[in-house]
């Protein structure tokens, strides 16, 4: 009896891991079939030959350690792990901001001639280019540890954005086919972003630029190509030469944080008439006063406030995150003008799970609020919907969720 009981306990403990191993074998086989039956026909139609396809993918296996995977046959338990989607204060750690700005000033001196030429050609200021370079790859010093084809094929097969990553896999195969990079050069981040500017393969095909005149856009080894490529990206997304990205402001209590967002723009002159002023005490530049500005409060009343321009939203095309674009603009100012920290401080807000935020967003949608989609991210539409809900319920709008506020909303 004792031996039988031991066997039962052993099987009970081991069965899940045995089943999981069997599942992985089956999923790996389905993955290889997907590469052959789905990816190869698409690649062939895109002009990729069989030799290139096999060189890229013949030895690729699934990477089970990546974030945001959706395992076939299991519930979607993916989690967003990027820093851009945590509480804003954590993104602006003083050491990271000042360190990036310090090296950025060195790079501004080192690349002064190149940056001046690029700004003349594209209208994109050098300090903005440097800030993106610093954020994306620590000015080319960050390790880029992953095999891009392993990352893109894994995420194209089983992630929460399979169609997107499958398209990027085809773009990466085209890069290899057209000789833009060797198989060994195709190293990426865990999300499949390539080289010093961290371009996705489709962005490389659309925006990569030969900045040093050697006939190819080498975003892995050439600093001048990297700088030119970042500027090309922003220019083609509509960077408005001569305009700033934004200004830190003081917002009076009479102006609700629920007025923020890119669809609530109005001439900066109108914001001034509502009592909004620059924290520096300086007036807005004369050319800006009659241009459209947008209220930005990325932590609601729990952090600094800004009036941003259309260029801020061009920066968001590089990374769809308010705090990313704010970091780039602010570090750019520190590189060019030597400014210090924001005047407004960040409250230490708790990081919230995407599941919990999604539950709140769905409840707000049920009540008629436009949160921009129940995606678990605290974007400007979610923030202002929170503020509008608070105002409807007789509360002062803070426009940022806490555990307690979420509980109140989903009740």
TrEMBL record:
Residues 31-333 form the Transglycosylase SLT domain. Residues 356-398 form the Peptidoglycan binding-like domain. One of its GO terms (biological process) is peptidoglycan catabolic process. NCBIfam families: MltB_2. Residues 1-21 form the signal peptide. Keywords: Signal. One of its GO terms (molecular function) is peptidoglycan lytic transglycosylase activity. It comes from Yoonia maricola. Coiled coil: none annotated. This is Lytic murein transglycosylase.
